[in-house]
Design goal:
Chain lengths: ~160, ~400
Amino acid sequence: MTKREKDIIIQIKESLKEKIISWEERTANRHYFTIKKGDIVAVARYLFEKGKARFITASGIDTPRGIEILYHFSFDHHGGKVVTVKTLVPKDKCEIESITPYITGAVFIEREIQDLLGVRFLNHPDPRPLLAAESWPKDWYPLRCDFRDTQFTDNTKQEK
Amino acid sequence: MSRNRKTIIPIGPYHPLQEEPEYFELEVEGEKVLDIDIHIGYNHRAIEKIGERMTWDQVIFLVERICGICSTSHPIANCNAQEDLAGVEIPERAKYIRSIVGELERIHSHLLWAGLAGHFIGYNTLWMWIWKYREPVLELFELVTGNRNHYAMLKPGGVRRDIKEEDIPYFLKVLDEVERKVDMITKAALDDPVLAARLKGVGILTKEDAIKYCAVGPTARGSGVAIDVRKDDPYAAYDLVEWNVITQKEGDVFAKTVVRLLECLESVKIIRQCLEKLKKVKGDIAVKIKEMPPGEGKGHHEAPRGETFHYVRSDGSNTPVRLKVRAPTYVNLPTCKATVPGESVADAALILASIDPCYCCTERMMRVVDKKSGKVLMDGSDLIRLSQEKTRKLLGSYFEREDRYKC
């Protein structure tokens, strides 16, 4: 078992050698690595199809350098290792390739990130808004740092 | 004569049966469902955004309010994430208490679902029976934590309250009773021709689909995918006790029911071992986390419905920069797209319920007003007083209640 556990991390490191920019091992079961935006589909497909990982979820964070998207994968049969793939999307060209065509489980979360952080997922099979109402203004993204929730109340006051 | 005979049947936005804000559009031809479209987001409460303004301790109370049924699973996942971030190991006694609370919750949640499933298929006897046996579990919660739901038992670094030594005999007695009844119901359900006719072969989720949709919990285990965070990535006391992961390979609604009922029995086994260990393991129930270093933390917990995942990021201040919550229904709900098409409309409602979508049942009475005089007879403060009196009564007289749950 321990040999197999070691194997999966080494395997990922070897197979994705050219794509990994940096690797961080916080504990034995919690790993993070950074890749370029363009490599996400290849990396996600490798982890899901070859590595037999389970896609847990993705999360987006608004940082000064751009919007960071983290894809969390769990290797349930390799000691429950949780590996996070990090990638950075610049705010001026806020789009990234969708992984939903290959991992169906990502269908909701990509639509959610699109609503809340304004990252466009290219080639998503169903890119309708998930959480935002029809009347929600197009360029308001609640999880971005420059969003103020008073924006909404100010607007309704003006309407009145 | 070619006519388009397709019809759209809307269910929701407020689901009449499951009482929760979700909206399904069923595209049907005659009785048969051709396609399903799922709309969510009617009750988005911006928990993640609110979490960014709260301190690390307050976040635990916030995430506890996400759900009323599995109200301890989010705190456990969040504590795991915060402890991963801070690099803290919790005391052994706290580990056992966490597991006990987590497993008690699993029993009450699974029994709640099994009862509702009975109600959905018009089998109200099953519903009333099962909910009757769920009640002692809620009273155990009241005894240990002081509340039926929203227990506030966890804090980063350990637990808030200890389980008293003198409570353990009563605890074990109720567990024996619950085990006996769940065992009886499981056997009855497995042999029942009515249940088998109604649930077998309905809404089959294949193993390939379960993996493709990244399903978790009983939804995945009912389809033969043996994943369980408690076994795969042990936390709390799950690696210190003996228990099994329950799987079924059929993938239909019946298999999910069997998984849930058998898991209740496993939970009883875990709690019993934890209580035995509590008698021997003494010491602190929490360690103090002095400060949160900058960095990231990931934590998960196997909630009754599947894996709950929390991700936190810290910049070294007393509030999180980002809190990400992934509840199990979020990945289980899309599996309906694989299971519902091809089934009849009557089965669709059952299949939609079979993933055990999560909703809150903590609403109790709010206010009683006399219609004629308009006088308020009872309000929230009376309710709190009644509730506190009941807890006190429960604490005072549990030794005298020999025959209470015999039938």
